[in-house]
């Protein structure tokens, strides 16, 4: 055997280390940070938080994005931001998967035929600018933009003599704007303020999911519904054809066919007029109501129920009526919105719960007529720029119109359906890499700033247009006449920080730290607009009823996870269950059992829907939760491009919706069974009844008004142990006993907590095949359960590890991988675990997850992994840890500062993101802690499966049921 020198040995072993670090299946990123020249703004091992604005939908919530060693790892809500006040929805939580999407466009692409070839930025700028300089007519179609980015787009169009600039959003609330234009001369979407509202009347407006500003509305709704001694919770009624998540939260759900919605809204308005329950005069409306009911059949809703709803609505102190859905347009949808606006006017809601002085940013999005004119104007001389919009997916005729343009330039992050039609694809920065601003409403100016360096060779969209205009010989100028070199300079000048000097720089830095600028104090009271009622009339003609058994009315609905389809390539959202059906990875058709029986359709059959615009196929779910004359199916799926997680998953409902955009929100469809086999919908909760086990408990409001009965309750503390019935000895916790309270009255079922848990704790996405085999890895689930005694209502039970004091999982582990630590946590020691799964078998709550495979983190998704949480491997059991890493961070911070931990200082990821503030976390050994007060004294407290005597550290607070008269 030949001898090896020390130098050769070190060279070989060093090379092996490099090979291990750069191997394709790696799960962790361990890049060394050079210390000879320390990188700016990066302190190794230190968390840095950047304030920015979420652009996952037009709501414009404020965000704090955590950065560790140059990598963005977690998105959280900005507590100071007036829109969301620290909370985020599931889509906001998933924004990091958009940043690190493996299917992002990474380089400039040029299409010849059906193939793309990579090009340089200079080649792209040269080619496009030459076309512009030689007379190419500019047309711009962008997603909704405000502030500096909108100014750059407007300046770019103006520089080339064009006025063709539209901001396109598939969900633009056009019917609401049209109604307000007709009544008040204000074609805007007002702010609907649910703060303090005591009665909410929703006409198919899913305001807890995708309608309006969902995070703000969810917080306001949960605050109104919260149990307060002596104060009744906010009441809510929902009218619509489908039991949505929002409808499930209502006290009263009235199932109404789509074509009956405008008629029922008008009938409610007529009851208010006839009974004299209006605060403002609506006399001029009566002739239009009489004409409507003379030509329409009476509403298929009980008259007594209409009277009850009208009385409750007009008698409320701060009522509000909401008109949906947000994608609706056409005469019937406008008539519904007109009636809703008049109901608000009659009840005195204008100027209070309906505020026209703060219109939603969506008011600036393009209408259907403007879009039709825009696409019809395209010709061979046009250079069409499409910025971060996907009309080829959401408008069936858009692809044909775009093909008429001489050159299509796509600026975006994904190679979606629209990008595949473009001649040039210019990769732009993701919003978390770029500069900008967004104004969701007047008085709220949210800044957008990079939270980490660029991952790929991308540029800001504004910077690209500024460079193109300069190269074409038409540099863009601001309102002051200057020519900024990039969007950041434009932004600083627009905000008044462009004059230089220390004071301007300090103001700029303060705005960056805060995340923007907004009014802290409450706005002054506004004057309610007066409606123009002279000559008032309804627009829609009575729709013909279904004449054949196979004819139904289509009811598409917007998913809280996928919105209009733009985030469909994110595994976190595809694997997050729908709140009501608990189905993942795809969409399905909801069909009433009576209609299915008439057509010979069974559960899980493949069904085809056909409208005048197109057809689609999807598996069917039989449920009475949809009206007998309707079919319902979720929007956002069925992509032919976008990425690996989105392509070919589900069906594209927009293929059927050209008729919806012209006729209204009811469109006739034919439903027929297809002989082919259908992939059955993947459910992660097979039942929604409690089987008399009282898992999710509720209590009538009247029962809480009298002295409550004694509660059988053993605390997870030494005082909760009794020698006569406890098998195991008590635990002594020297410093802390961490615990959580979950208020079921507040939970709306949105699932944001579950997505936040994925992001914080490196929970892997396993894909549809493994989920179908029961291999999902979610540490926190929010399954729906039917409220006992209610036909329609659901309630949700957030369920993770209960961190029991007498944990059944601990004594059965043969290697002590499941242990009780000194602070009361049921800890899982991963490097001890040998995968016997005894702990899971013995857990009565079934909240433990087993890694059956070594799951791959597609690059660059591994960059998002939380470095303070172990990435688990095959053969290891895992579960909720109460975000122990956050507990340790807070403890270290308090120790460095020489103080005790403060109550509320430790906030697990689920509690931090929850819009409804369901979770309360703290130390049971702290007598002043909020968790101690709720656990010891709230009359609604109970332990899940308390009869097993596991002494959980999680206390649930029962739901409070409003008495519905």
From TrEMBL:
InterPro entries: 4Fe4S_Fe-S-bd, MoPterin_dinucl-bd_dom, Mopterin_OxRdtase, Mopterin_OxRdtase_4Fe-4S_dom, Mopterin_OxRdtase_prok_CS, Prok_Mopterin_Oxidored. Belongs to the prokaryotic molybdopterin-containing oxidoreductase family. PROSITE patterns: 4FE4S_FER_2, 4FE4S_MOW_BIS_MGD, MOLYBDOPTERIN_PROK_3. Residues 47-103 form the 4Fe-4S Mo/W bis-MGD-type domain. It comes from the Bacteria. Pfam families: Fer4_11 (PF13247), Fer4_2 (PF12797), Molybdop_Fe4S4 (PF04879), Molybdopterin (PF00384), Molydop_binding (PF01568). CDD domains: PsrB. This is 4Fe-4S dicluster domain-containing protein. Keywords: 4Fe-4S, Iron, Iron-sulfur, Metal-binding, Molybdenum, Oxidoreductase, Signal. Its cofactor is Mo-bis(molybdopterin guanine dinucleotide). It comes from Geomonas oryzisoli. Residues 738-768 form the 4Fe-4S ferredoxin-type domain.
